[in-house]
Amino acid sequence: TSDHIEDQLRRLQNQSFFTAPLKLGALQLGKIVFARRTPAEFTSKEKKALLQIADSAALTMDHIAKLDQSE
User: Fold this and answer.
1) Against a cut of 0.85, is the pTM above it?
2) What is the pLDDT along the chain (71 residues), one digit of tens a residue?
3) Residue 41 needs a FRET pair 20 to 30 A away by CA distance; which of 6, 18, 24, 68 works?
4) Bridge-partner residues for 22, per DSSP?
């Protein structure tokens, strides 16, 4: 599960993580975890950018699924 993956990632020392939902409207497709090697917290500006990346990834996943269904 995604919680298990997050727990495993946190066991790595000297790393920072930020988890963002992969959502299409109210539907949650999953989560994406961003990591960096330094133990510093992600800033609010970084989190905002990562949430935008997650939104783009969710939209891309939806487009791919719809393309697969049409074939």
Assistant:
1) no
2) 567 777 776 677 667 889 999 999 899 999 998 988 888 899 999 999 999 999 999 999 999 988 888 87
3) 24
4) 30
- Measuring CA to CA, which residue among 36, 20, 18 is closest to residue 28? 20
Distance CA 23, CA 37 (A): 26
pLDDT of residue 13: 66
Written as six digits, the tokens of 60 are 């891309």
Token output for 21? 């939902």
Bridge partners (DSSP) listed for residue 31: 21
Task: Give the residue among 5, 9, 31 at the shortest CA–CA distance from 20.
Answer: 31
Please give the sequence-ordered ranges of beta strands (E in DSSP) within 1-71, or none if there are none.
16-24, 27-36
